[in-house]
Write a structure and sequence with these properties.
327 residues; alpha+beta; five-stranded mixed beta sheet; 13 strands
């Protein structure tokens, strides 16, 4: 019974951790902080249950039961995922070989989820009526409370020792102050674009608008919070989308990049979105989305479309898009 309940606990811990991990990428305002906290707490649930799972797996290996190797691999990958998450929290290691720490963490998390599915295929986990008894719920609550206590203790320790990890934003991202130190990043398979600024134009509502017509003295201070694990607060110069859209009616605004990347925004939020040409007083570099990019305060970095090529308004609902870009 203990082994089965441990497996069920790990199963739910893995599933919830996967969903909250994806949800943490979408958090852009403090109201969503609970998703990031839940991700950390469920990871600690897995840590607490790991010794029991290791014992179960060792017994399975001794009896040469099918699926035991998958079980051991699963717990090893889970612990590696959590270890990479700890490195992200501390902020002291930004890269592991050719990959960022966040890339390693996400890849390991996906691998853990895949191994969980493979493990369930060999040994399905079934709920029994007793799993919802008062005693079982108290035990589950005890594990969850212990994980929550460990999370609070870890956060308190980081604060007490003055660790860089104690100064993370509510998303878990670390602060970059200097604009020149902002990493050059883009979503998944996009490459940095090197465009001819002298002949560059953005197609807005079917009309080509030259770069000179988009330059402005208006500035906005906005926080770019990248899902790579860093954030920066900078001054951006440009124009709001409602100015370039005029009285165009529709449900949503579609912004496309020269790479084919795109995001859809609510039309009624156009006054809070910016089409910018300058960062910290200087023209946008190629790596940071120049000549023109979107600045979307309160949204994570993947909403800040780089190398903007066109802007259209249509009647498709703004939620009609993948919550996270697929490419």
């Amino acid at each position: 019974m203990v082994g089965r309940r441990t497996n069920l606990g790990l199963l739910w811990g893995t599933v919830i951790s996967a969903f909250t991990g994806a949800g943490a990428f979408m958090v852009g305002t403090p109201a969503g902080r609970w998703v990031v906290v839940a991700h950390g707490v469920t990871a600690l649930v897995i840590v607490i249950l790991s010794p029991w799972k290791t014992t179960i797996a060792r017994r399975g290996l001794a009896r040469a039961r099918p699926g035991s190797v998958t079980s051991i691999s699963l717990i090893a990958v889970m612990l590696a995922t959590i270890a990479s998450g700890v490195l992200l929290i501390l902020g002291s290691v930004n890269r592991l070989g050719p990959f960022t720490t966040m890339q390693v963490h996400v890849t390991l998390g996906v691998a853990a989820l895949a191994l969980t599915v493979a493990h369930l295929a060999k040994r399905p986990a079934h709920h029994h009526r007793t799993d919802f008894s008062r005693r079982s719920l108290i035990r589950s609550g005890g594990v969850l409370a212990a994980a929550g206590g460990l999370w609070l203790a870890a956060e308190g320790t980081l604060e007490a020792i003055g660790s860089r990890g104690s100064r993370r934003r509510f998303t878990g991202s670390h602060h970059i102050i200097d604009a020149s130190a902002i990493p050059v990043t883009q979503w998944l398979d996009d490459d940095v674009q090197h465009l001819d600024r002298d002949n560059y134009a953005v197609t807005i509502l079917g009309r080509d608008v030259e770069l000179s017509d988009l330059e402005s003295s208006e500035e906005v201070e906005a926080t770019l919070d990248c899902t790579g694990g860093w954030y920066t607060i900078q001054s951006w110069r440009g124009v709001t989308l409602d100015r370039v859209l005029g009285d165009a009616k529709g449900e949503s605004v579609v912004v496309r990049s020269t790479t084919g990347y795109w995001r859809r925004f609510p039309r009624d939020q156009a006054s809070a979105l910016w089409l910018v040409t300058h960062l910290a007083g200087a023209p946008l570099s190629d790596g940071h989305g120049g000549p023109v990019r979107i600045v979307a305060p309160g949204r994570r970095g993947y909403w800040w479309v780089k190398w903007v090529s066109s802007i259209e308004v249509d009647d498709v609902p703004p939620w009609w898009q993948p919550p996270l870009p697929l490419a």
